[in-house]
Design goal:
The protein has 181 residues and is mostly beta strands. It has two domains: 12-112, Jelly Rolls; 117-175, Jelly Rolls (Sandwich). It is 0% helix and 56% strand. The chain is built from no helices and 19 strands. Strands 2-3-4-11-6-9 form a six-stranded antiparallel beta sheet, with no helix packed on it. Strands 1-17-14-19-12 form a five-stranded antiparallel beta sheet, with no helix packed on it. Strands 5-10-7-8 form a four-stranded antiparallel beta sheet, with no helix packed on it. β7 (69-73) and β8 form a beta hairpin.
């Protein structure tokens, strides 16, 4: 069972949003020749406002705590609800609306546009995930993934199969064309 890495809060970095209006906890960043290929992160949305622009990047977010909000922009109007992954282009201006100034936390995925689109799913106890690509498993509470005990907000990276055991959901992100390790 090829486990590439088990990351915890001690491995993460915090940084300001590109637009300066908030902070992000970066869980994983993979670059090639200075170009972003993959980024996994957590952020807090506590007020209506613009999202940062990321040219040539595809984005996905999944609300992991709080009531959620709407993302609105040209040709985009989606409700971001708890544990429902939402994909959108990183280079189209979007705005969080309807927050009612209540905090929602989200898990974000960014991938370079030239890569195949990532699969982002929410998995539960008993899920069996086959091998293929790079699989990132983000625990929302104490759970076992691929036989590894994970605490809340731990991240497990593997290129092998993974089974999920425990009461908490796991956000699974499968990407192709990204080598890690």
């Amino acid at each position: 069972m090829p486990i590439l890495r088990h990351l915890t809060a001690a491995d993460y970095t915090e940084q300001r949003w590109a637009n300066g209006r908030g902070r992000t906890t970066e869980l994983l960043r993979v670059e090639r020749d200075g170009q972003l290929l993959l980024r996994l992160s957590m952020a807090m949305v506590a007020e209506d406002g613009d999202f940062s622009l990321f040219p040539d990047i595809e984005r996905s977010l999944t609300v992991i705590a709080g009531p959620g909000f709407r993302l609105k922009g040209k040709g985009i109007d989606v409700r971001c609800l708890a544990l429902v992954p939402v994909a959108f282009p990183g280079d189209v201006p979007v705005r969080a609306v309807g927050t009612r100034r209540v905090q929602s936390d989200d898990f974000g995925v960014m991938t370079a546009r030239h890569l195949p689109r990532p699969q982002v799913t929410v998995e539960h106890d008993g899920s069996e995930l086959p091998p293929g690509g790079l699989l990132a498993l983000f625990a929302l509470g104490d759970v076992a993934a691929a036989g590894v005990a994970l605490a809340r907000y731990d991240l497990l990276l593997t290129d092998g199969p993974a089974d999920i055991r425990g009461l908490w959901p796991v956000i699974a992100v499968r990407v192709w064309g990204v080598e890690y390790g």
